Amino acid sequence: MYEENILINNILNGDIDSFSALVNRYQNRLFKFLLGLTFCREDAEEILQDVFIRAYNYMHKYNCKWSFSTWIHKIAINTFKDFYKQKRKKDFVEYHEDLSLYKIDSGVSIDQAYESKELYKEVVEQINKLKSDYKIALILRCAQGFSYQDISKIMGVSVENAKTMVCRSRQTISNGLKMKRGVNYEL
Amino acid sequence: MNCNFSHEEIDNYFEGEASVESSKVVSEHLKTCEECKVYYSSLVMTGKLIDTDIKLQESIFKNIENRIDRHKYRGKRRLYYKFTNLISRKSSILKPALALILLCFITIMAIGNYSNIIGSMKPDHNKVASNPDMSTEDVIKTLISSNGGFTSKLLVQSPTGSSANKEDLEQAKSVIIKRLNILSMTQHEVNVDLPNSCLNITGAWINKNNNDFKKTLTDLTVPGKLTFQETDTKAADVNGKYPRAGEIICDNNDIVSADYADNGVPGQKTINIKFNAQASAKFAEATKKLLHKQIGIFMDDNLLVAPVVQEEITDGNVILSLPDEANPDIIRAIISSKPLLSKVEITDIKFVNN
Ligand SMILES: [Zn+2]
Description:
The complex is a heterodimer. By secondary structure, chain A is mostly helical. In chain A, 71% of the residues lie in helices and 0% in strands. In chain A, helix 4 (68-86) packs across helix 7. Chain B is of the alpha+beta class.
């Protein structure tokens, strides 16, 4: 945290290398976040660039009483929403089949691998069916590991509300899979 | 197949946040209950999918390097510090040319957005104007010649429809100034033209990205009465909006402040409204009554949002989440000011260097 504030201070003094350092520090964490939201490597990379550009342009407005991580996640959410608004993709119903994203455990047979790919595709489908705020809450929790307090700050909702959104998302995904598969899915 | 085992407990177990005792109970239960096992599997799969360890191969900095203004922050603060040093030493060796450059910087900084960085310098628009060497008019003129700006004429009609008197014009002026100040896009001056029932505005851009400022100004001249009211949720109109029903609970006059829920996030769509004590009490009563029902928040005759009351709000702090199509900056500017009592209309707007 302290180091970040030094970097930000340097950036505000015109030091571009500090900005480069800050980008390196956050790019993978935010990339993971955006991959979860888009399931599309290209979109995630494009949005990520815009996030850092916005962050740079508004750096003088950053208030260090907030953690930088919270601040930049908020920017990422707004950028993500704007991105899809511009592309006129409504509520992200389309998703990209970037199968390289799915981790297949090594040492499984081709059949099993195919089966788990199919299963993961269905999970992706379920996640994409979530309302965007629910999806965002879920990913902030499960991928980014934020506390509900942080999620409430990032999303501007109450802690209770943040918790409910994550719980409901999980429930919805599970129910969706059940509807599609019956109860016969397991890892 | 209808197990009532708490999913929250399974979630905690999955996240490794359950107590040792609870973990035991959950893992035992998962051995025997198909339904919960399925739920747990979906948690694991979801987790694997989104908690990836996929990384970017290289720094994306090189992709954005050319899309940012490297000089955006360069020199500004350093100049400021130099300037204060010079002042504190009461130096008389400030060369005229340098002094002029420095003065420009200071002027721009003082009215720009650097107030967060330089704590001691608050963006008090009037302070710049009170610089003994420069009148407000001069400051704005200088800024317009470097940044561009606008001039506009607003026609004010009194609430009764007759031409506006001095009081009407002064009320409109103070509201418009307040709104423009909160918006912080311009350094501006508003003058009353009583014979023509007009307000004349001259403004210089602080930032240059003022696309479609005519629309912005039009949006700023609405009456802007914000009311919190009960709504009739059964009587949605063709647009799915609800008509107002019941009494007005609070309005602009009750608002102490309206800030972004988190300062400094561009495009932030949540506004934190703080009510005065009297309105807080009224609001607490209303939210108690309307618990789990919708409360309508209207701007003039339009329903802005109709959130469901989740809990009784007793402290007079209301977080207002705006719909995606709303412009949070304009709404904040409007609700931070009193409503306009007169009808205000833009009759002329001209842009300079824009
Ligand atoms: Zn069970």
